[in-house]
Specification:
The structure holds 2 protein chains of 2 kinds.
Chain A lengths: L1 H7 L8 H5 L4 H29 L10 H36 L7 H19 L27 H28 L12 H32 L13 H35 L6 H14 L15 H13 L1 H15 L8 H24 L1 H7 L3 H31 L1 E2 L2 H27 L14 H18 L1 H12 L1 E2 L30 H7 L3
Antiparallel strand pairs in A: 1-2
Chain B lengths: L2 H41 L1
The chains are: A mainly alpha, B mainly alpha.
């Protein structure tokens, strides 16, 4: 009888290393993505600490300029492709089947393959520190002709980017196929949680733009090794063309990094406001509008290369247009909270910080969109402050909100709320100490990507570095809180948060190895979809 | 498992295969196509 029961529960899983190397279960693969992203977050963060250490005082303190440039380049590549993107894919793996009523991702073996590409890609990339000439130092944007001067690490850079791109595309195909085909009967598109919607749109963006990056870096490769002159003026090529191609990928990439955060914030705020999300449909259309607009704004990254006035006007106005759907989102999140019964557990705190601080990043983005102003801000620390506000209290806080929101569901245990609240406050205070002064430095004229600077920039650089060290140290709390939760947090029931809605909260905590072996009933779906 | 459920599961499997194939071909064509285009233009 016991044997029959064991067989019936469909919960037997492989053990030991086989469970992970041959993983096809969406939760196992999601966990691997998240662990990988966390590891890369600390590797990229270590590079950031070294950068802030060097910039603590003017003059060359610890590193030669070439190595400093390698640090900035690798910090960006590791954080973007190794930390934020895999973290989103990890969350997608965990949550999309659970939120749509599917038993697993549609293509489990492909899922395994797309994850296991990543450790090889990043081993290749990071090991470039140890080859002659050092790691790539031309910036994550890889502009020629500078990047063509990279030493032996150049083909490693190109090949690792191809691997990351292939991994992202395969992951995106899996997400689209799962959402389109595997939803439970009754889970209509307009009943889907916002996190699933934002990921569906993100997946389309990934398929559209990663090949463009692959094409661009292949052209760099042939310019470097096979005698072509796509971007070499001496042979009739045009280095500015690379910038156009790169940013045609690069701007949608920004939205690839941030759209899933919009989805998470749209889940968290209603839960802790104990109210349905205000304007669900408007949120879906706003997300789709932002994704569409992201394809027609790329040249705002390169106003100063010289372009016709009409082009400058077009890209300035199209960029400003993005403020409209983004404003709709900020308005809807705020209105969701209006007259709600708010409580401030860690996921809500991170979502609120996201709301305030991402909006600051959005505002400085609007300032950069103004062509004549951009001529002043271009390549200064103002730009560094802007995109870090979008990516750290934006994307990274979104990931933290998501992890703190769903961790009790994943583990069946509640984490230490007090410690997590400390983690939140330390992160939020130090992230502002770290990045806000960089606005002042940029407006005062400090250029980005330099290991040394004029003495008048010393004070704010010191403040920024202190903020950086504080933020870095505060992040050590994150793995400790998770470890403590997994080891012995207090048990929670199906619904870890009182105000939570959605199919994932109808499953046990932790959920069964295969999520929805029997599709949820229409009544359960309707209860979860009370937007 | 009742026959209707088996048929539904089979139909879903077909749909998954079909859309996986369509999107893979689309992505592969875009990915490889862009690279081939650059190489062809580069050798002119």
């Amino acid at each position: 009888m016991a044997e029959v029961l064991t067989h019936d529960e469909h919960d037997h899983k492989p053990h030991g290393w086989r469970r992970w190397v041959y993983a096809t279960n969406h939760k196992d693969i999601g966990t691997m993505y998240l662990v990988f992203a966390g590891t890369m977050f600390f590797v990229g963060g270590f590079a950031a600490m070294l950068i802030r250490l060097e910039l603590f005082r003017p003059g060359l303190q610890f590193f030669d300029p070439q190595f400093f440039n390698s640090l900035t380049t690798m910090h960006a590549l590791i954080m973007i492709f190794g930390a934020v993107m895999p973290a989103w894919t990890g969350l997608a793996n965990w949550m999309i089947p659970m939120q749509t009523g599917a038993p697993d991702m549609a293509l489990p073996r492909l899922n395994n393959f797309s994850f296991w590409i990543l450790p090889f890609a990043f081993t290749l990339l990071i090991s470039s520190f140890f080859v002659p000439g050092g790691a790539p130092a031309g910036g994550w944007t890889m502009y020629p002709p500078l990047v063509l001067q990279t030493g032996a690490s150049f083909p490693m850079l190109i090949f690792s980017i191809h691997l990351m791109g292939a991994s992202s595309i395969l992951g995106a195909i899996n997400v689209i196929v799962t959402i389109v085909n595997m939803r439970a009967p009754g889970m209509t598109l307009m009943r889907m949680p916002l996190f699933v919607w934002t990921w569906l749109i993100t997946a389309y963006l990934l398929i559209a733009v990663m090949p463009v990056l692959a094409g661009a870096v292949t052209m760099l490769l042939t310019d470097h090794f096979f005698g072509t002159t796509f971007f070499t003026a001496a042979g009739g090529g045009d280095p500015v063309m690379f910038q156009h191609i790169f940013w045609f990928f690069g701007h949608p990439e920004v939205y690839i990094l941030i759209l899933p955060a919009f989805g998470i914030v749209s889940e968290v705020i209603p839960t802790f406001s104990r109210k349905p999300l205000f304007g669900y449909e408007a949120m879906v259309y706003a997300t789709a509008s932002i994704a569409f607009l992201s394809f027609i704004v790329w040249a705002h990254h390169m106003f100063t290369v010289g372009m016709p006035l009409a082009a400058q006007l077009f890209f300035m106005l199209s960029t400003m247009l993005i403020a409209v759907p983004t404003g709709v989102k900020v308005f809807n999140w705020t209105t969701t909270m209006w007259k709600g019964s708010l409580t401030f557990e860690p996921p809500m705190l991170f979502a609120l910080a996201f709301l305030f601080l991402f909006t600051i990043g959005g505002f400085s983005g609007l300032m950069l969109a103004i062509v004549p102003a951009d001529y002043q801000y271009q390549d200064t620390y103002f730009v560094v402050a802007h995109f870090h506000y979008v990516l750290v209290p934006g994307a990274i806080f979104g990931i933290m909100a998501g992890v703190y929101y769903w961790l009790p569901k994943w583990t069946g245990r509640m984490y230490d709320l007090k410690l997590a609240t400390w983690h939140f406050w330390l992160s939020t205070i130090f992230v502002n100490v770290l990045f806000f002064p960089q606005h002042f430095l940029g407006l005062a004229g400090m250029p980005r990507r330099i290991p040394d600077y004029a003495v008048q920039f010393t004070d704010w650089n010191m403040v920024s570095s202190i903020g950086g060290f504080g933020f870095g140290l505060a992040q050590l709390m994150f793995p400790y809180i998770i470890w403590k939760c997994v080891r012995g947090g207090e048990r929670v029931g199906k619904k870890a948060w009182e105000g939570a809605h959605g199919l994932e909260w109808e499953l046990t905590s932790p959920p069964p190895y295969h999520s929805w072996t029997t599709p949820p009933s229409d009544a359960v779906i309707a209860r979860g979809a009370e937007h | 498992m009742p026959a209707t459920e088996i048929a539904a599961a089979e139909e879903r499997r077909r749909r998954v295969r079909r859309s996986a194939l369509v999107w893979s071909l689309f992505a592969a064509a875009f990915y490889v196509g862009f690279i081939i285009l650059t190489l062809v233009r580069g050798t002119k």
